[in-house]
Amino acid sequence: MNPYQRIRKTIKWGGAVVTVLLAAAWISCIWTCVTWRHASRPALGVWAIWHGGVVQMGNDSGGVAGAAGWRCYVFPALLNWKPEFGYSVGYWEFVLPLWIPVAISLTLTATAWRLDALARRRARVGFCPKCNYDRSGLAAGTVCPECGALPVSR
Fold first, then answer.
1. pLDDT at position 153
2. Exposure pattern of 28-52 as b/e (b: 16+ CB <10 Å)?
3. What is the arrangement of strands in the sheet containing 32-37, beginning at the earlier edge strand?
4. What tens digit of pLDDT does each residue of 2-27 get?
5. 3 state DSSP class of 28
6. Could you read off the pLDDT of 106-153 as tens digits, one per residue?
7. Count of C-beta atoms within a 10 Å radius of residue 26
8. Contact 15/109 with Cβ under 8 angstroms?
9. Quick one: which H or E segment has residue 73?
10. Please, is 1 exposed, middle or buried when counting C-beta atoms within 10 Å of its C-beta (0-12, 13-18, 19+)?
């Protein structure tokens, strides 16, 4: 297996896993809110997954008051569809909707699947995998006359 095939395979399957996990987190955060607060670093504020996005909240005095650790709440919520940054007196909040990383991951994964399918089709039909030259009249072991690439071993 050549290194490009290995890279495409890793991107295809790794991207598929990441896309499914992000989509599951996006769908599940419609009904739940999962928050995390660092015990020894209150300046990190509160990280939450809720309303369809990742929310980071804090204040200028070094975090948000409350107990450290993980919390989970169940309640219906509306989805955030656009990124937001809010600041009021001493308090700030940043929201990144999870559909954005889902869309980016899905696009990259779909592109990798498409490129892999094209490469397999070209190799099967008899085209050069590098420059797409038609190798139908060439002997089996000769290099491509256009780019000098070696033939694909089957």
1. 64
2. ebeeebebebeeeebeebbebbbbb
3. 69-74, 32-37, 46-50, 53-59, 91-97, 84-88
4. 677 788 888 899 999 999 999 988 88
5. helix
6. 999 999 899 888 888 877 777 887 888 888 888 888 888 989 888 766
7. 20
8. yes
9. strand 69-74
10. exposed
